[in-house]
Specification:
With 147 residues, the chain is α+β, with helices and mostly antiparallel strands. The chain contains 6 helices and 3 strands, in the order H-H-H-H-H-H-E-E-E. Helix content is 59%, strand content 14%. It has a 3-stranded antiparallel beta sheet with strand order 1-2-3, with helices on one face. Strand 1 and strand 2 form a beta hairpin. It is elongated.
């Protein structure tokens, strides 16, 4: 989930969820560190210990926070799908991957077949698309490179 919040648009749209995720992640890291330090990695021993009995409820609470974050991410994806209907052809994971790496042409290229019939490949450099290639290897050169 960490990669999701690296994208500029997602960060702007889901600021509160990003902060919540950071706090959940920090809490989980703290719990894992405690488990390793105190109980030789035995989770059940850790959860049932008298000094750490609140950790089960803490884990449940953190999972509930994650569920809320996931619901907000799904709402965000739904908004994006309504702006560009072809996003409905992608699973939520694929769409998140695409949106979180939207500055990389490779991520767009990997999903082209799901968006448009008969687009097989792109001729591009690291900043611009120069042409679109069909499955029959026909090439449509762009009049101007597409950023």
């Amino acid at each position: 989930m960490d990669n999701i919040f690296k994208a500029k648009d997602i960060k702007e749209q889901l600021k509160a969820e990003e902060e919540d995720f950071k706090s959940v992640e920090a809490k989980y890291k703290e719990i894992v560190k405690d488990i390793k330090a105190e109980n030789s990695g035995n989770v059940w021993k850790y959860l049932n210990s008298k000094t750490k009995s609140e950790n089960l409820s803490t884990i449940v609470y953190q999972n509930q926070k994650l569920q809320v974050i996931l619901k907000e991410i799904e709402k965000y994806l739904e908004k994006k799908r309504r702006l560009f209907f072809r996003f409905f052809f992608l699973s939520s994971d694929e769409l998140l991957d695409l949106l979180s790496s939207q500055d990389k042409i490779e991520s767009v290229k990997d999903n082209l077949k799901k968006f448009f019939d008969n687009i097989f490949d792109l001729d591009y450099n690291h900043t611009h698309i120069n042409s679109i290639i069909s499955e029959e290897k026909e090439e449509l050169k762009c009049l101007k490179p597409i950023p």
